[in-house]
Predict the structure.
Amino acid sequence: MARRDRSDQTVGAHEKKHDLPPGTIRNPEGLSRTQVKHELTHG
């Protein structure tokens, strides 16, 4: 079974952990990073 990422992890920390360039995870609706994190963790 694959390991899961922490639900309280910031988008920046997620990008760094997965070797993604900063700003890779974006939201086309222009939500803040906190709102994007919420969308990622709560679907």
Remarks:
- The first helix runs from residue 11 to 17.
